Amino acid sequence: MTGRAAALVIALAVAAGAAHAQDAPMVLTPPAVTNPQRPPPPAAPPAQGPISIVPQTPAAPPPAAAAQPPLPRLKPTQDAVPALTEAPPGAGPSPTLRPPAPAPTMAEPMPPAQPAAPPATAGPMPLTPSAEPTLPVPTPAVAPTAPATVTAGKATATGNGVDLAYGAFQRGLYLSAFSLAIPRAEAGDTAAQTLIGLIYEGGYGVPRDYAEAANWYGFAAKGGDREAEFALGMMYLEGRGVEADHAKAADYFDAAAASGQMNATYQLALLYLQGDARPQDGARAAQLLAKAAAADVADAEFVLAQLYDEGRGVTADPRQATHWFEEGARLGHVPSEVEYAIRLFNGVGTEQDRTAAYTWFKRAADIGNPIAQNRLAHILATGAGVPADPVEAAKWHFLAKGAGKNDDVLDQFVDGLSPQQRQLALAAAQRWPAN
Known about the structure:
Layout: E1 27-28, E2 106-109, E3 134-137, E4 150-151, H1 164-170, H2 174-186, H3 190-202, H4 210-222, H5 226-238, H6 246-258, H7 262-274, H8 282-294, H9 298-310, H10 318-330, H11 334-346, H12 354-366, H13 370-382, H14 390-402, H15 408-415, H16 419-431
Helix pairs in contact: 1-2, 2-3, 3-4, 4-5, 5-6, 6-7, 7-8, 8-9, 9-10, 10-11, 11-12, 12-13, 13-14, 14-16
């Protein structure tokens, strides 16, 4: 998958734990994307776990065992990618309430706390308001890929509600899943057609083939499968397997969203927000984002929070903005964690709580976010909300600086440490994340 912020892949991964073919139809989740439950408000830094809003290209699955059946050499023989000629009823654009302003980069300065006492061996330079940098949080410039949910279809291998093809896929038996799905797909089962598209798109047990994936998604989309409509919309948005066409992508997102596909709803909202293949309409975008956010689409929660913060398409409301940043943070959305921590630290849209802010910064820093690492260094250097720890502050500064987040104030702070303290901090940074 590309690393472009504009578009991301919907690849699905093997569900955790052993699943049996005799189980009820299962819901698949995408590869390399966690689906965390909402944790309670953190009292201590939560355990680290790699969470990313940018799903990476799924690694090629391990070779199938020798006992797997051979791969059928079947390809669609007709143009399987239909063109949608009209949007579903009720999915048209709403009137623009006011001309939306360009989306600025989110930035919020953190006022410094009183500096802690300097180390006994050397006095660090205190952090001053004029020298402290602002904290930008990236705004998605183009629609990021949201996780897709694929469910078993109406036809099954056994006829009793058990979907053997999806069960095999979830257990990593990709060639078996392919073989089980092919006869169903040829008989017109849209869920099986979508599964074959997924197998080709992700290269699960077969060579990755985006054009072939688009063909199979096209068959299923023509039959009204909302997951295939969303998948095909993403392929048109990104130009994978088909020529990039944002108008067609918007049509497919419209169709999928009308059937309740929330990730398609989010993607459609971004198109309205940007005026890309749909009229620019902040109010319509906010409506769609609110619907997706209510269904726990973390990216939608983050963007909706920004709209409330900016008063774009909605009435500006700092408490609503903070609420949606918090909701995204609790789902493990890293930019939301950083932005929520800033607002806790400054008391924007919520009661000021610098100890809780430290916890959220630590959560994002532990998985490698350089902005959070930089803020954590400032907090530990000044003792804002937690006891000052010069060595730990220097460690996080080294890590953030190594990731490209420079900070002259923290450079001066580290210069004021003793050689022993700097050596300890550097060693801790080199061991990270082991420590």
